[in-house]
């Protein structure tokens, strides 16, 4: 059971005229409630080839490692969202270079937009949603303790691309992929 | 005045614990209503160097020309959204090549994701939301009658990039920009 945001009346599932999808529609005031995918913005924040990771202090995936990332807010750009999350979760300032990895996750209605950037002065702390944050070399990445497949894939891409392309000449590819199936499985 | 989706009680504006933004919060059941940016997916659908445009049969911008594009739905990928919109608005089947232009429009809480693709067999019609659709050569693009700045910019990028890069070798750049100010102004 669901209620109308505009008038509080109980809504009904219906396909509005000219539409192709079921929506929650209000039979009292006619308001149509659209539900759309959400954008998650985040940063691969680098400092001298080290990657900034955060250990989650919240569910889901409490205790596992992630890139700083979270839901994009109204009135910000994706780049601002990625920088804000880096500040909130890791108390680091990131200068965004470029969009690096994007993931469709249709099963849960999410799109990840992960930006490559430089962690200013290599400085960071740990925000309220993090147990701890740290800069990792490739050899130390906790591959078995990463929170999400999007994070695993982004780190794999980064270490592959760094050996394959000339990052100094900005020859960094952009990756767009779809993550399907059970998101608890790191593929 | 706004009401709770979950229980129908009137909501109140408040900053939830651990949050940094005001949300509509329900004092009865505690449900927090997040509002986030929406993704608009669309296609630059090409057929022999011609671009498929649609003349809008709906507001806003009734009568003006646009690329097929619309709100991304749950349970689809961005590429599927772009192809679905091309079918719905122009009755064309597009084979997506790559993400080509992305625009933050923070003033209205939208992110455009426009994909370059090939219009299969050059076939199209006109969907319910289009007065007409047509394939345009560069010389015939209705620059003064385009519906949105995102469309204007994408077409400008395309004609510039086509002369600058080797599209046959997939050397197509990706553009990420922010559109600010009044979106009725084509910048
Ligand atoms: Zn209502
Ligand atoms: Zn409630």
Automatic annotation (TrEMBL), chains A, B:
<dbReference type="Pfam" id="PF00293">
    <property type="entry name" value="NUDIX"/>
</dbReference>
<dbReference type="InterPro" id="IPR000086">
    <property type="entry name" value="NUDIX_hydrolase_dom"/>
</dbReference>
<dbReference type="Pfam" id="PF14803">
    <property type="entry name" value="Zn_ribbon_Nudix"/>
</dbReference>
<protein>
    <submittedName>
        <fullName>NUDIX domain-containing protein</fullName>
    </submittedName>
</protein>
<feature type="domain" description="Nudix hydrolase">
    <location>
        <begin position="36"/>
        <end position="159"/>
    </location>
</feature>
<dbReference type="InterPro" id="IPR015797">
    <property type="entry name" value="NUDIX_hydrolase-like_dom_sf"/>
</dbReference>
<dbReference type="GO" id="GO:0003824">
    <property type="term" value="F:catalytic activity"/>
</dbReference>
<dbReference type="InterPro" id="IPR029401">
    <property type="entry name" value="Nudix_N"/>
</dbReference>
């Amino acid at each position: 059971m669901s209620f109308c945001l505009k008038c509080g009346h109980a809504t009904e599932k219906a396909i509005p005229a000219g539409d192709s999808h079921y929506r929650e529609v209000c039979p009292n005031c006619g308001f149509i409630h659209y539900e759309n995918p959400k954008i998650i913005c985040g940063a691969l924040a680098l400092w001298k080839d080290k990657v900034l990771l955060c250990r989650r202090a919240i569910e889901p995936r409490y205790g596992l490692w992630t890139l700083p990332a979270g839901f994009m807010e109204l009135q910000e750009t994706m780049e601002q969202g990625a920088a804000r999350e880096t500040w909130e979760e890791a108390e680091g300032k990131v200068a965004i270079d470029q969009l690096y990895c994007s993931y469709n996750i249709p099963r849960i209605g999410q799109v990840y937009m992960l930006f490559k950037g430089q962690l200013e002065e290599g400085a960071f702390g740990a925000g309220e949603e993090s147990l701890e944050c740290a800069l990792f070399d490739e050899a130390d990445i906790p591959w078995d303790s990463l929170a999400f497949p999007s994070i695993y894939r982004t780190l794999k891409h980064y270490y592959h691309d760094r050996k394959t392309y000339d990052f100094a000449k900005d020859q960094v590819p952009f990756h767009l992929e779809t993550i399907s199936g059970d998101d608890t499985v790191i593929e």
